Amino acid sequence: xxxxxxxxxxxxxxxxxxxxxxxxxxxxxxxxxxxxxxxxxxxxxxxxxxxxxxxxxxxxxxxxxxxxxxxxxxxxxxxxxxxxxxxxxxxxxxxxxxxxxxxxxxxxxxxxxxxxxxxxxxxxxxxxxxxxxxxxxxxxxxxxxxxxxxxxxxxxxxxxxxxxxxxxxxxxxxxxxxxxxxxxxxxxxxxxxxxxxxxxxxxxxxxxxxxxxxxxxxxxxxxxxxxxxxxxxxxxxxxxxxxxxxxxxxxxxxxxxxxxxxxxxxxxxxxxxxxxxxxxxxxxxxxxxxxxxxxxxxxxxxxxxxxxxxxxxxxxxxxxxxxxxxxxxxxxxxxxxxxxxxxxxxx
Length: 347
Hints:
With 347 residues, the protein is α/β, with parallel strands linked by helices. It is built from 10 helices and 13 strands. It has a 7-stranded parallel sheet with strand order 1-3-2-4-5-6-12, sandwiched between helices. The chain has a 6-stranded mixed sheet with strand order 8-7-9-10-11-13, with helices on both faces. The radius of gyration is 20 Å and the shape is globular.
């Protein structure tokens, strides 16, 4: 896979990216002249190597490259970038002939709103946003609150101190969905369990998705208060919370990808009880396939618990030994799918 603009990383931290200037404003669908089908993704904050959200998108692109014979391209975000930077990035990817072009994360909404009309024959995908729409825009969204509810059930069953933690990266509506589902799952399972909640940053500061030291400090604070299970929805920053929990011998719950199987977190995997998964990989792959098949997706494409678009991983052998926990999670899943449990989308 050719990376359009790949920046150097230290461990899994992202650094700044300088993109070359690209002329914008002219409606065009002309590609680079290559007949080889290609698709591209533009990463969210934290970039590739976050062991979570962005890596899940990359996995979908890689699968499409292998199974569909397309050429995959990807671009990193720059630190503290503006919407104009995102416009430039998407314009460059579309002008180069990539189809589809996928923005990984709701932060791409303003840029896609500007760029998509200029390339009407190119399909644009955006993950976690429905605010921007168009005939050539596919909105790939998830019922994060449902998976988080299951995490709450698991946390309530696993805790021995009756205190669990939730760490949100940035306090935005999307992450509030994670918080709401988790807290509801905990309380429905055991009302005696206290949920400690903390957000790392407030918008427009999005460091809470990219700086592991923030997640680590927040988790250490919750551990000091007696929490013995900590769930994060903080992207790359969440790796710090996993480190903190594992170091203290407490349980961590991952997010987006099955973090038990992420190479960058292998040192802490034994204490990653489970992860709330979002099938971002399949969403990316399915959009690319739809374009290749000549029937591009558009409008809202929703992934929920009923079709395993969200879920709870069971890779950790210790998780599989917890029969009471698994039974409670399975029952909650069935009740959500049957409509017996209505999961809240806001705290």
